[in-house]
Design goal:
about 80 residues; mainly beta; 6-stranded antiparallel beta sheet; 1 helix; 6 strands
Length: about 80
């Protein structure tokens, strides 16, 4: 899948029409994304996100949840603090 829109730093829309919120701690990873960046969506096994987006070129990963959903209470702060 490729990026259709990435106007807001924390939300990405893919060419399949799906929209995903990017985990705040992973935003820096998306700075190198370009419209032609090939991304793959995969289920996530962690407490914070339901899925990960994987960059097909460098295999970097960002945690995501469907746009409009809320991050789990307390988990974002806990992960960002290194816990």
């Amino acid at each position: 899948m490729k990026i259709r829109a990435h106007a807001e730093s924390h939300v990405v829309e893919l060419d399949d029409g799906s929209c995903w919120q990017i985990f705040p701690g992973d935003l820096a990873t998306t700075l190198s994304w370009k419209p032609e960046t090939e991304l793959h969506l995969a289920p996530s096994g962690d407490r914070v996100s339901s899925h990960v987006l994987v960059n097909g070129t460098d295999q970097s990963r960002v945690r995501v949840i469907a746009a409009g959903e809320d991050w789990p209470d307390g988990e974002v702060k806990k992960v960002l603090k290194g816990g």
